Amino acid sequence: MTFLMQDDLFGATPPHLQPPEKANAKAPARRAGIQPVVWDEALHALARRLPPQLRLGTSSWSYPGWQGLVWEGAHSEPTLAKKGLPVYAQHPLLRTVSIDRSFYRPLSASDYLRYAEQVPADFRFVVKAPSLVTDALVRSEDGQGRAPNPAFLDPLLATQEFVAPALAGLGARTGALVFQLSPLPWQQLERLPVVLERLRAMLQTQPPLTAPDAVLAVEVRDPTWLAPAHLPHFADVLRSTGATYCLGLHARMPPLQAQLPLLRLLWPGPLVCRWNLHPANGPHGYEDAQKRYAPYDRIHDPEPQLLAELARVIAGTTGRGQRAYVTISNHAEGCAPLTVRRLAEQIVARLD
């Protein structure tokens, strides 16, 4: 029966109008600050039909090109970074967001608290762990590895610099805390079982997740982690520590279908997914994607098949009462808010 449930998991799921202006009336003054777009009723209706345990969102929120999609008027990136989150969180479909700046520099509990105070109680954050503990190499400013990182997968640093301050600051708004492990040097890939046991030791020592919807997740950037020789070991590490796998839709990784065996081994459990980079840009293509897609105001490279497959996984997970956190980058199709809407439509169609 367990195998039936696992196989079926990813299959079919069970079930303002203003009064007419007077001839000489003055135009209303433009409201100060960042204001949300007036979203159409179809978007609100779509949001109401999504499973309550599903939280869709984007990677960060400070994009001027989202004018007319998320907020009114033109605003600079620094202004949106400081003041855009409360408006973002009013969007009917956007119930989570990925905080990515934490990857480059650890954030304090007060940093996280400032984020938490700007969003509704039902909002949840997806947060990336600092590269201090998730990168096996110390890198130069251009990203080249210079030397082994002695803090890689350090249990104490993972707690002090990530898990503890995130839980303290975000509180009940904590969603998925993601350890995104950077590509490993070949010496460590050849000794992946040793790295897996270091990962186990780090995950085992993390404090209890006091937030009701919090989950630890591990994302990788090397296909070797999912090879048949290592998949059972990887699954055992995650299962034994109460963590889960973050489905990484990235040009460096195998397609979604090739990552599902690990999710099946971890079933039942929550889904964490980060859709990061369209394969057309190559495995190192963030700069290329930025040039092609900026200002991120439309879809450039649609992925209808991937949308359908991901909707199937989400519907299968939430249809059985499990939580799902799915964040999408502008580098996925060109405009994350539009991709979120396209994905939501696919999910609702499958649930219907």
From TrEMBL:
<dbReference type="InterPro" id="IPR036520">
    <property type="entry name" value="UPF0759_sf"/>
</dbReference>
<protein>
    <submittedName>
        <fullName>Uncharacterized conserved protein YecE, DUF72 family</fullName>
    </submittedName>
</protein>
<feature type="region of interest" description="Disordered">
    <location>
        <begin position="1"/>
        <end position="29"/>
    </location>
</feature>
<dbReference type="Pfam" id="PF01904">
    <property type="entry name" value="DUF72"/>
</dbReference>
<dbReference type="InterPro" id="IPR002763">
    <property type="entry name" value="DUF72"/>
</dbReference>
